[in-house]
Amino acid sequence: MNNKELIQAFYKEFFNDHIVESADKYVAEDYKQHNPGVSQGRAGLKDAFAEKFISNPTFRLEIQRIISEDDMAAVYLKNVDPEGNTLCRVVDIYRIENGRLAEHWDVLQPVK
Questions:
Q1: Cα 78 to the chain's mean position, in Å?
Q2: Is the dihedral of CA 53, 5, 77, 91 positive or negative?
Q3: 9 sits in which H/E element
Q4: Which of 8, 53, 84, 101 gives 18 a disulfide partner, CB atoms 3.0 to 4.6 angstroms apart?
């Protein structure tokens, strides 16, 4: 699986199907998180989004573009509501190591 396929599969299963345990397949255990709102490690990611999916069961991300080079990938995406309206624009940046997401940065832009 190449980096783009890894990211597409992760977003589908984890963020859109809300299968929190799918992070075990795609995310390194010692995942480095640079978003201060999410704890470190794969467990921190799973805990944060398990809560988010309960509080917001319609949470969904639509990938618009993936740019990948070597061990880095940038994902431009939109957080959309059930009607397809864009709530927030996001750029996620990942470092990939041994076929897993190893490190993450993000930039968010709410839509007014």
A1: 11
A2: positive
A3: helix 3-10
A4: 53
Question: What pLDDT was estimated at residue 3?
Answer: 96
User: Distance between CA atoms of 62 and 11, rounded to whole angstroms?
Assistant: 9
* pLDDT tens digits, one per residue of 20-60: 999 999 999 999 999 988 999 999 999 999 999 999 999 99
Q: In DSSP terms, which residues pair with 72 in a beta bridge?
A: 69, 95
Helical H segments across 21-81, by residue range: 23-26, 41-55
Mean pLDDT of the chain: 96
Residues 52-107 have pLDDT tens digits of 999 999 999 999 999 999 999 999 999 999 998 999 999 999 999 999 999 999 99
Q: What pTM value is reported for the model?
A: 0.93
By DSSP bridging, strand 100-110 and strand 27-33 are: parallel
β-strand pairing of 27-33 with 72-80: unpaired
Name every residue whose Cβ is closer than 8 Å to that of residue 36 and which is 6 or more positions away in sequence. none
